[in-house]
C-alpha cells in the first residue's frame, strides 16, 4: 500500500519536534517548513530531502488527517500541522527548502519540471543567520550611536536622525520581507503586527 503525502508528512513532523507544520506544493515543487525558534538548517534540509525522496509514485494527496494532526489541501498545496494552541502559528518561522532534483514520485514517469536537476525552491537569504546577526548588530550600533548623538549634541542634528532611521530599517528588514511574502499569499503573521505597531509608535 502506497503511503499518502499526509502520512509521509506526519511521520516527518513526528521525527522533528521543533517543526510545527510543513507545506508541500507538488505541482509547483515547493516545500515550506514552519519552525518555532532556531533550527539546525543543514540537518533539517537533509531530512526534508530524505522525506520527499521517500514518497512513492502516485501517492495520494487527499485523505483524512492522521491522529494528532490537522491537514489542509488548498489549490494543490498540502499543509500538515500538529495540533497546537491557536496562537502558536503566529510565532512560526516559515523556511523554504530546495526540492530534490528527482524524487520517488518523479521516477514514476514524470520528468522533473524545468531543467533536469534544477530545484525550484530556493532557500531565502534572509534565513542565513549570519545575515540576521549582521542586521541585528547594525540595528543595535546605529540605534545606540543615534541615541548618544542626540543626548550629547556632539554632531549635527540630522546625523542622529539618520542613524535612528538606519537602525529601524536594519531591525525591521527581515520581518518586512517575511510580511511581504505572507501578504502576497493573503496571510497575516506576527511580523506584520509588530511592524504595524512599530510604525504606529
Q: What is the rounded distance between the termini?
A: 57 Å
The total of helices stands at 5
Q: Rg, please? A: 21 Å
Largest beta-sheet details: 5 strands, antiparallel
Shape by Cα distribution: elongated
In total, how many beta strands?
5
The proportion of residues forming helix, as a percent range, comes to: 40-55%
Look at the helices and sheets and give the structural class: alpha+beta
Average residue pLDDT:
75
SSE sequence, one letter per element: HEEHEEEHHH
The largest beta-sheet arranges its strands as: 3-4-1-2-5
Low-confidence parts, pLDDT < 50 over ≥5 residues? 107-127
Residue fraction in strands:
5-15%
Overview of this structure, please?
- The protein has 201 residues and is of the alpha+beta class.
- It has five helices and five strands, in the order αββαβββααα.
- It starts with a helix and ends with a helix.
Question: What's the short version?
Answer:
The protein is α+β, with helices and mostly antiparallel strands and 201 residues long. The protein is built from five helices and five strands, in the order αββαβββααα.
Any key phrases for this structure?
201 residues, alpha+beta, 5-stranded antiparallel β-sheet, 5 helices
Secondary structure: elements and pairs:
Elements: H1 5-15, E1 19-25, E2 30-35, H2 41-54, E3 69-74, E4 77-82, E5 93-97, H3 129-152, H4 157-184, H5 190-200
Amino acid at each position: 500500500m502506497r503511503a499518502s503525502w499526509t502520512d509521509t508528512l506526519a511521520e516527518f513532523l513526528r521525527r522533528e519536534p521543533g517543526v510545527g507544520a510543513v507545506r508541500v506544493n507538488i505541482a509547483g515543487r515547493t516545500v515550506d517548513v514552519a519552525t518555532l525558534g532556531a533550527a539546525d538548517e543543514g540537518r533539517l534540509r537533509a531530512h526534508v530531502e530524505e522525506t520527499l525522496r521517500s514518497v512513492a509514485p502516485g501517492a495520494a494527496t487527499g485523505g483524512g488527517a492522521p491522529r494528532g494532526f490537522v491537514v489542509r489541501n488548498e489549490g494543490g498545496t498540502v499543509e500538515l500541522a500538529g495540533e497546537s494552541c491557536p496562537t502558536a502559528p503566529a510565532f512560526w518561522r516559515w523556511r523554504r527548502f530546495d526540492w530534490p532534483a528527482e524524487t520517488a514520485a518523479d521516477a514514476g514517469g514524470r520528468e522533473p519540471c524545468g531543467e533536469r536537476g534544477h530545484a525550484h525552491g530556493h532557500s531565502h537569504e534572509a534565513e542565513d543567520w549570519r545575515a540576521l546577526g549582521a542586521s541585528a548588530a547594525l540595528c543595535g550600533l546605529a540605534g545606540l550611536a543615534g541615541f548618544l548623538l542626540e543626548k550629547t549634541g556632539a554632531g549635527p542634528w540630522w546625523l542622529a536622525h539618520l542613524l535612528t532611521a538606519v537602525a529601524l530599517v536594519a531591525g525591521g528588514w527581515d520581518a518586512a520581507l517575511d510580511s511581504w511574502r505572507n501578504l502576497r499569499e493573503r496571510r497575516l503573521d506576527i511580523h506584520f503586527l509588530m511592524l504595524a505597531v512599530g510604525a504606529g509608535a
